TrEMBL record:
Gene3D superfamilies: Alanine racemase (3.20.20.10), Lyase, Ornithine Decarboxylase, Chain A, domain 1 (2.40.37.10). The keyword Disulfide bond does not apply. Its cofactor is pyridoxal 5'-phosphate. GO terms for cellular component: axon; cytoplasmic vesicle; dendrite; endoplasmic reticulum-Golgi intermediate compartment; Golgi apparatus; membrane; nucleus; perikaryon. Antizyme inhibitor (AZI) protein that positively regulates ornithine decarboxylase (ODC) activity and polyamine uptake. AZI is an enzymatically inactive ODC homolog that counteracts the negative effect of ODC antizymes (AZs) OAZ1, OAZ2 and OAZ3 on ODC activity by competing with ODC for antizyme-binding. Inhibits antizyme-dependent ODC degradation and releases ODC monomers from their inactive complex with antizymes, leading to formation of the catalytically active ODC homodimer and restoring polyamine production. This is Antizyme inhibitor 2. Belongs to the Orn/Lys/Arg decarboxylase class-II family. ODC antizyme inhibitor subfamily. Its main location: other.
Length: 460
């Protein structure tokens, strides 16, 4: 029996039947209901595959999942079962992962600016590892959590990321010595350094510069008598194949920098805070057209007239930017819908825009889309909807958040169990029929193939 995840927590997708097939079945069922609510299909097998790929690409880095990116329980339980740690930014996130049984030594409290009550909560629940970046925070921790093990968060040049965190968080290199000296005066234990290059990083060189800066601060600490042993390289890893920078490119840069500044055997443990990397591509959203409005295009020479279109169409969906499309506040990208009903090849296209269901005029999802004419009741699906969608959604205007339907392939579920040593190792013949493992121990193909390894150890 698995510790965090049971087979009853998700739908098992058998061999030959994909999560895409499951989505089609769910859409057919939903079309028969009068209440056509938006819903997600979450492929937990994709999360498993990403975890295996992370271990292969960054063999010296232990992942601590950034709960803020997607706090849905199926994701948290899956990653806990795989042995990942958790990056929590609040009391509620700590409570979530501890409620399913995650031990405190698998948690890092990464918010550098915490309420005193939440520092005390962490102390009372055994969470010792936490971040800071200023003198005031040190004072709060010294008084409220004297047994904390602190990580100094340093600023980075995150201008190449859509979400630039260093405008708000991170100590400059010039201030680090003073903060380390102050921590010593306050008798606060400093165990390591952290940084975050910003969510959706598009400049892999930022990781190299940040790791080099962390090395400098380690040396400052050594001069002051600290024996720091932890480096947290944060997040910023892409989660989809269409990202401007691929995960493999970033991993190559990180490995080179770690070999140079924190080589294996140096006594420093390396962790990271991947968020969107794990969940972005795992979630697909299905929404329904609840209304439409046609707007005539009567200006000569307009785009609509050039393409033979005499109108543009506004479509109103049953989910919007106050719900699952809240990721637009983070990524500022226009999502591309996939039509459930395939149009005829000669069907005309119209300039179309998509709007959410609320009474707010800012509830605008996408514009300038060329779509065939849709009808009320039609379904649209959106892929790569796992990052900062569910976590940032609200019930504004009383609209319900979409239901999540979890699924996992039978092969992925077996991989989870193998990782936790719940199943015996397959016989040599069976293993060869599954796949030919790489020298690193993993092979990832269209069907997930694995060989057993131990889950990452926790930080002690």
């Amino acid at each position: 029996m698995s510790e965090y995840l049971a087979e009853s927590d998700f739908m098992v997708v058998e061999e030959g039947f994909t999560t895409g097939d499951l989505l089609k079945n769910l859409l057919m069922e939903a079309s028969q209901r009068s209440d056509k609510r938006a819903f997600f299909v979450a492929d937990l097998g994709d999360v498993v595959k990403k975890h295996l790929h992370f271990l292969k690409a960054l063999p010296h880095v232990k992942p601590f999942y950034a709960v803020k990116c997607n706090s849905s329980e199926g994701v948290v339980r899956t990653l806990a079962e795989l042995g990942a740690g958790f990056d929590c930014a609040s009391k509620a996130e700590i409570a979530l992962v501890q409620r399913i049984g995650v031990p405190p030594d698998k948690i890092i409290y990464t918010n550098p600016c915490k309420q005193i009550s939440q520092i005390k909560y962490a102390a009372s629940h055994g969470v010792k590892l936490m971040a800071f970046d200023n003198e005031v925070e040190l004072g709060k921790v010294a008084r409220s959590h004297p047994h904390a093990r602190m990580v100094l968060c340093i600023a980075t040049d995150s201008s190449g990321s859509p979400a630039c965190l260093s405008v708000k968080f991170g100590a400059t290199l010039q201030s680090c010595r003073h903060l380390l000296e102050t921590a010593k005066e306050m008798n606060v234990e400093i165990v390591g350094i952290s940084f975050h290059v910003g969510s959706g990083c598009i400049d892999p060189q930022t990781f190299i510069r940040s790791i080099a800066d962390a090395r400098l601060v380690f040396e400052m600490g050594a001069e002051l008598g600290y024996r720091m042993h932890l480096l947290d390289i944060g997040g910023g890893f892409p989660g989809t194949d269409n990202s401007k920078v691929q995960f493999e490119e970033i991993a190559t840069m990180i490995n080179s920098a770690l070999d140079l500044y924190f080589p294996e055997g140096c006594g420093v443990e390396i962790i990271a805070e991947p968020g969107r990397y794990y969940v972005a591509s795992a979630f697909t959203l299905a929404v329904n057209v609840i209304d439409k409005q046609e707007v005539p295009l009567d200006q000569p020479g307009s785009d609509g007239e050039e393409s033979g279109c005499k109108k543009s169409i506004l479509y109103y969906l049953n989910d919007g930017i106050y719900g699952s499309f809240s990721f637009k506040f983070f990524d500022n990208i226009c999502p591309t819908p996939i039509l459930h009903k395939k149009p005829c090849p000669d069907q005309p296209l119209f300039s179309s825009s998509l709007w959410g269901p609320s009474c707010d005029g800012q509830d605008h999802i996408a514009d300038s889309l060329e779509l065939p004419e849709l009808q009320v009741g039609d379904w649209l699906t959106f892929e790569n909807m796992g990052a900062y969608t569910i976590a940032a959604s609200s019930t504004f205007n009383g609209y319900q958040q979409p239901q999540i339907n979890y699924a996992m392939s039978r092969m992925a579920w077996k991989a989870v169990q193998l990782l936790q040593r719940k199943l015996p190792q397959p016989e040599e013949e069976d293993r060869e029929s599954m796949c030919t493992p790489l020298s690193c121990g993993w092979e990832i193909t269209d069907t997930l193939c694995v060989t057993p390894v131990f889950a990452p150890a926790s930080i002690t």
